[in-house]
Amino acid sequence: MNILYKVMQNILHGLLLQKDFDSMSSSDNVRKTLQNKTTVIREVYDGINSQERFEYELECALEGSVDYIVIEPTKLGEETSRWIRVGNCLHKTAVLSGLASFILPQLLPEGTPPANIYVGLPTAVLSVSCAALYGISWQFDPCCKYQVTVNSRELSQLNVQNLTNPSPVVLVHRDDKYRKTLHNCVALCAGLFAVRAVYEFWSS
C-alpha cells in the first residue's frame, strides 16, 4: 500500500510541475497575437440548413486545431459548452474519487468494518468508470482539446469585429495530455487498489 502512495505522490508532483511550466508557456503565447488563429462561426441564417452549416463549420474549426473559436449561434454555443462541461465533470470525478479511495479508508477508525471495501471500493469503481467513459466518449473527440474561456485578457487579444451576438461562446485550445495522464494514472491506481481490497477481503 505504501508503494501505491509513493507512486501517486511522484505522479502528481511531476504532473503539477509540468502543468506549471506549460501554463507559463501558454501565458507567453497569449501575447503573440499575430500567431493566433481565430475562427468565427457567424450567426447568419440563409436557409433551412443553417444549423447544419454551423455545426459543419465548428467541426472543421475543431479538426483544424485553431487557437480560438468564437461561436455566435446561441444553440450551438450552449450545446458545445455543455458537452465540454460534462467532459470536465468526468475528468474531475475520476481524479477526486480515485484520490478518495486512497485517503478516506486511512481516516476511518481501525475498529470500523473493512474501510477498503465499504468506502475505498465504491470510490475506486467510480474513478475507473468515469475514466473509462471519458476515454470512450471524449478522448478522441477534438472538442475535448478546447475549454470555454471567460478570461478578459484572452478575449481582448482576439479583436473580433462585427459580432451579431453580444455574448458569444469562445473556445480556447488547450493541451489536454497532462490531464488525461493524470486521471488515467489515478484511475489505474484506484483499480489496482480495488482489486487488492477485494482479494484481501475474500482471503481473510
Automatic annotation (TrEMBL):
Keywords: Membrane, Mitochondrion, Mitochondrion inner membrane, Transmembrane, Transmembrane helix
Subcellular location: Mitochondrion inner membrane
Cellular component annotations (GO), alphabetically ordered: mitochondrial inner membrane
InterPro entries: TMEM11
Membrane topology: Multi-pass membrane protein
Pfam families, A to Z: Mito_morph_reg (PF14972)
Gene Ontology BP terms: inner mitochondrial membrane organization
Keyword Mitochondrion: yes
Family in the record: Belongs to the TMEM11 family.
Function of the protein: Plays a role in mitochondrial morphogenesis.
Protein name, entry field: Transmembrane protein 11, mitochondrial
Organism annotation: Phallusia mammillata
Lineage, highest ranks first: Eukaryota, Metazoa, Chordata, Tunicata, Ascidiacea
Gene: Tmem11
